[in-house]
């Protein structure tokens, strides 16, 4: 009989708990025990193990965060750390490790795979959705919903005061949250790293000026990805205020985007992936991520998930740019009317 | 130059307003005017028209319901009604009509198509998701989120009081909301019309009895589709109470499932379909629904959307039945332990 | 040194956990241990005790339900049950018992007080707010918020379809939730038990008919308290449909009103009461409820909380009746215009 | 017959729309017309009037922001501005002006009162709750709920990653939001302007260090009022990180605190004050704010609302400081154990 170990690693993401539940329940059906290690890879190295029983899983799916706790652990790049982890896993008679995490966690999993005989599987868990080989990741759509709700709130006060806001959303170095939140929030403009060419300050200022002229009583919201503008949205707001003569307010949404109860889509995805992970263990698979493409569960070699860049859906980019232009076009129409 | 008319028809669904917005803005980009008729097909017949300007679209995407109002209008099956609608549309120089609605509305659109020269297009707008030819419909995922949040609330009080609840969700004659809400809500059991064979009362009672024996301090939630059990969940609760000796409570969620702000997925879907509808008008398409399959926008002959039954995703059915069995299995384990 | 015991009893209410936290932390400050008994009075009788440590309290305030579980336990009226409870409490060296619950639970506490030497204190925990001697109860404002959010959702679909809805809210035999939810939901009419005389079916039907005539495109929502109309809102809807010729839909909100995260007001109230309960223990008080009147913590003999009826705030009744009449008045104005 | 004018002024607050609704409906009952001016005092000076009919009020209470729009307008300090406003009001046959706003808006109302014959009334509308003479202000409890929900989200990710967060909340120069959000969010520490003496950096650092030592796996949240720490929470986070050797994260909540649907308490308060304002107009009152103290509607001379400082409820301060100390005390216990 096998035992499976589970960790959550890197930034936590809503849905991780539902995923753990599905792993534990599915494994239990096949008479496989599951144990967790707390705090991700560090927890393996330091043997912070925690048994996971089916009965403990009854009320976890609803909760954000991760019952196994998580951490970033750059030291795991070292060979010694991987060897120590392998020793701990062997000591516990673990035959497979499931790593729920993102890019960096999958590098760690890939690294461990070279120093340990057991099976290593990755499940995509990151709000940033920046993993190639899967259409979506655990936590992504919940983070988009959270960002959208925050934008809805800002829209109301911005509309009441006829203000310009620069709303910074998460995404690390990718524009997935930015793009989806911009569409969902009906943003007047969007700055995400994937746009080529990037809009220049003068263009943005020009767009704001024309919008203010055409609709002096209206709000104007720009969704901006983090790590994009030097100095962040605060600095961008300062520059745009200077360039336009209109006060531009900054609103970095920050860590509220990580928390919160997972939405239904993330819970369903998480459970689907958790169940599929146990099936992959039974199939003897190792060194792969279990993802979802076009509704189908897929198995992708781990290194392919972080070596390649994942592209934004160009149809959604076109949708947002189209609706932005339309807003602008209608301004022009109104101006000449 | 063309003019496009838009109606929302049948039960309203969150996202309809975002869809109207995308139609109006995209049409405006191509210098096409859009007018709406209020109250669906009845509004065409009675010429309850309403101009739709890009500027009016600024704050509608966030809102549930439909700014165009909707209605059921069975009289539209008559030939005279279709001819009258055609006359009104011609009178307004309409060259294309976009119908946002479900099954019945698409029958109406198909009917009109035979008595009117203009283009007729359907956009899937129903929380029930019971339209073939599209993976999802406007309002479906928001309704699932709403049902899940209600289940989460009921879970808390059920857990505090160690109670059994039968939660009735919408879906007309399909189990989409039931299946997705059951998974997302970690329901202990699920009754949806597509299960074959349907669980019998004795099976349900047996499952409840065993769960109560194994976990006397825990809640037990069964998600039940509407129109499935004769007399509804109230009657089922009475029968199960009698059969098990445990009070089984009923909780019909009802119309709260229709309302509420659309989630991000529904807003994005709605705008994507609204934009695609205008593109289809420009392409000269008629008699088709614009849907989404595996992330791609598709055009499906209207009659195929309501003549065929849409199947539940069998992988998700397996997921829920698997997790249910596991719960049960773990009960057994515990009992024998 | 003293030990304090805590139970939650009767219907659970959001905020009970925050209250438990405040009791445990405040007691800890005075070096007093706290233990809980699960399932209310039954848990004392059956000695289902559970230690409560300050460190376990870190993440409970956010959660609905009650970590101590609750139950209704009518058997506690018996003298033997009270004597058995007293014995168990003595066995654990308990010098004070804090009962968080409503009307029935306070009767139980009062009963126990006659057969046990320790101090007995009640904290008002019920969503119904039907306890005299305190302006508000733990869970009440959260339940009102939940009912209001449900009404907001129903408003959206009712408005889209121009429908009449009868929305049944909780309250046992009191109209507190009904009154507050009606105002907050801008209901067109309200049926709560305290109205004298009660509106007759003919009056309601008349009001609906006139509203439909004046505003055929609008929704009309009536908030109805549970246990008021024979047969519930379903029966009232049937009768009104027949009397008005307009389909009147029923929407019983049910148990979703019990669940959910407590709002800020309920968390603050709960912690304030929990802290005050420990202070009352230190002051040697027994046989009292700790409540809040006009912002001040008050101590009220237990029997006064359930022997007297608590009145609705007449100013709020006038507010709602005034706004209802105004709606109606404006109809009349519009009709004659 | 009289006409009443209404403006919303200064920062918008959830509930302003419900207040406008109550004014319009109550006035209509007494056959009094109501007109609004958009953008606050500027809208009077520039005559940006907008009729307000009872029928337009049907769906506004649910919405955040203000349908009348608002603005800050420091120019209104000038005598000429007040005279111009008086002229415009006279021109429209206005006999009473209701100003919904905060401190600065009431100064404006007081200023206008000296140059205009009509009645001037203030209704407390500000999320900051920093107006003397009323226990609470329109928007305050909704802002606290919004801050609390954000803190709940941050708690989840902070707990998963065992992180320290400094959460900046609004309040201008008062600690009402900070105090209430700290209690409701079970914050480990609180920095609000009213504390004397203010905790020093060394004390905060010391408290964090000890908590990290006692509970290395736990989150630690400090709620900080805006405008309190030079450089804001970002700077405080940098200093604390340096002092403690633990990364302290900053999370300024920002403008999301202004938006959102008003909670039930704010809707009820808003309607109560709106109705009372019309009654005050009928009573011939001028130069007063209508507020609420201990559940009763009160009328307070305008200048008393901004000349005096409003104190925090010392019982709530003690509650939070008590629970904080307890957390700390229990740490000590644990350390020595």
From TrEMBL, chains A, B, C, D:
Organism equals Aliidiomarina sedimenti
Among the GO molecular function terms of this UniProt record, one is: 6-phosphofructokinase activity
Family matches, as InterPro entries: ATP_PFK, ATP_PFK_prok-type, Phosphofructokinase_dom, PKF_sf
**Which SUPFAM superfamilies does the record associate with it?**
Phosphofructokinase
Top class in the EC scheme: transferase
Q: Which cofactor does it need?
A: Mg(2+)
Q: Where is the signal peptide?
A: none
Under Enzyme Commission nomenclature, its number is 2.7.1.11
Q: Name one Pfam family in it.
A: PFK
**What is the protein named?**
6-phosphofructokinase
Q: Which residues form the Phosphofructokinase domain?
A: 3-281
The answer to whether keyword GTP-binding applies is no
Location(s), subcellular? Cytoplasm
Similarity comment text for this entry: Belongs to the phosphofructokinase type A (PFKA) family.
Keywords from the named record: ATP-binding, Cytoplasm, Glycolysis, Kinase, Magnesium, Metal-binding, Nucleotide-binding, Transferase
This protein's record includes keyword Magnesium: yes
